Amino acid sequence: MLRRRWTGPLLLATLLTVLAPLPAQAAEPPPAAAPAAATPSGAAAAATVPLPSLSATTTQVASGLRRPTALVAPDDGTGRLFITEKSGTVRVYHPDTGLAPTPLIDITSAVDESGNERGLLGIALPPDFAASQDLYLAYTALPDGAVTLARYRLDASRLEVLLSQEHAEYSNHNGGQLAFGPDGKLYWSIGDGGGSGDPFRAGQRLDTLLGKIVRIDVTRSCGTLPYCVPGDNPFVGTANARPEIWLYGLRNPWRFSFDQADGSLWIGDVGQGHWEEVDHLAPGQGGANLGWSCYEGLEKFEGGHCPPGEEYTKPVFTYSPYTGGCSVIGGHVYRGEKYAALVGGTYIATDYCSSTVWALRPDGRGGYDQAEIGKTPTQVTSIGTTADGEFYMVNDLPGGLHRVSFTREEPTCRVDRTVRSWGTGTTVDLTVTNTGDTPVNGWTLQFPLAFGQKIVSDWNTDLTQLSNVITATDAGHNATIPPGGSVTLGYLADHTGDASAPPRFTLNEDACAVGR
C-alpha cells in the first residue's frame, strides 16, 4: 500500500505551510500553477471559520479489520460502508449493526498480497450501483503482481478483468485509487513501477500506464476492449502514447478524490524523501504533467527525468517528511451537512506516519489557506465518505474504522508571518500572540526549510538548525507573553544549494502550547 521510510522525530507542534515565490533566476521555468477551482455557491458554499480554529477528532466505531485499504458508501439508501482488506476481501459496516462477520466479496484467490504495498487496494461504485449491482476493484493480481482493474458483478459473484499493467519488478508504488468522476468516467491511479527514484522513467513516459491516472468509459465496450477510451482523452491519436492516460508525472498517487460541488480533482501523491504533495486540478484538466521525476514537490529532483519542452503543474501543498510524516493520505473535500458551517469546502488529508490532519482551502486569491487541525489514529490508509458526505477513516494496524468529527477550538497562540523572497533567499518576520487568558512562560517554534536552505541570521530568538529542521525558542527577555500580548522575531535564510528550489518554510501555529 504505502512506502515506509525513516521519518525522524514527530513534532509536538501544529504546522502550516507557507509558499514563497520561486527564485527569479531559477535555471529552468518553474512549474505552472494549477487553475483555481470554481467557488461553489448555495448550500455547498465554503465555511468561513479560519482553518487554525478547527479541530478534527475521531471515534472508533469498529475493529477487527485485517489491513483495510479503502472504503466507499453505496448511495442506495442502506447506510452501509464497503471496506476493502489487503488480502482480497470486502467487508460491510452499518452504524446500527456494526461490522458484518462474513465478507461481502472474496477475491483472495486472484490477489497477490505479497509485500507491504500489494493487495486489494481500491474500490469504486458506479452511479447506477443500486440497479446494476456492479462495482469496480483495483488490485495486484497473481501470479506476478500486475496492477489490475476489474468489474465485480455482485449478483453473480463474478470477476471480470478490464485492464492491467505489468508491475513485476518491484512490489511498491501500485497506486490503486478508483473513483467515478462527475463525467461518469472511471479514473484509476497507478504508481511509477516502484523501486526508488523512478528507475523506469515512467512518470514522464506516455507509452506506459505507470505513474499515471487513467480515464476510461466502463459503460461500453469497444472492439476487443471491455471498455472504451473517451474520445476527449488528451493523448488519443498521439503516436506511441497510451490513450487511456488522463494525467502523468505522478509517483504514487495512493489516494485522489473529486470535489462533489465543483468537480475539481484533488490528489495526494506520495513523495520520495524530501516532499509529500497535494495537487488540485480544475475540472477537465486532462493532459497535465505533475512533474515526477523531474520535480519532487516544488523542488528539482536530483537525477530525475526532465524531457525538454515540458510544462509542469505544481502542487498546491507540500510538506517535508522530516516533520514526522512519511506518506500523504489524500482525502476529500467536505460536502456533508453536519459540519458544513465549520469545514464546508475544506479538503482534509492526513499522513500514514505522523497522523497529522491537514486542512486546505482555496483562499479566493489564487492561493490556499493551510493548517494542521488534529491527529488521526495511527497508520490511516484511507479516508472515505458516507453517501451524505460525512467522513470515516480506516487504519492499517490494528485495523479499525473511525468516524471523523469537527469542532471549533481557538489556538492558545496565533502566529502571524510576513514572507519576502529575494533571489535565492527568504526573509521571514513572525509575531507570536497569546490569545489565551493566562500568561505564557516560554515558547518554541519548529519548522523545516527547503533542503539546502540555511539560516544566515536571526533576531529575538535562540535559533538552531539541524539538517533542514529549525528550532526557534524564546531569547529569555521575551519568554513571557501576557494575555493579548505579542512578541516579534524573525530570520533570514539563503539557499546555498540548488538555486531552482523555492524558498519556503513550515511553522508551528500554536507556539505557546509547546513552550508551557
Automatic annotation (TrEMBL):
GO terms for biological process: polysaccharide catabolic process. One of its GO terms (molecular function) is hydrolase activity, hydrolyzing O-glycosyl compounds. Residues 406-515 form the CBM2 domain. The keyword Signal applies. Keywords: Carbohydrate metabolism, Polysaccharide degradation, Signal. Residues 1-26 form the signal peptide. Pfam families: CBM_2, GSDH. InterPro entries: 6-blade_b-propeller_TolB-like, CBD2, CBM2/CBM3_carb-bd_dom_sf, CBM2_carb-bd_dom_sf, Glc/Sorbosone_DH, Quinoprot_gluc/sorb_DH_b-prop. It comes from the Bacteria. PANTHER family: ALDOSE SUGAR DEHYDROGENASE YLII, HEDGEHOG-INTERACTING PROTEIN. This is Glucose/sorbosone dehydrogenase-like protein. It comes from Streptomyces cyaneogriseus subsp. noncyanogenus. The lineage of its organism: Bacteria, Bacillati, Actinomycetota, Actinomycetes, Kitasatosporales.
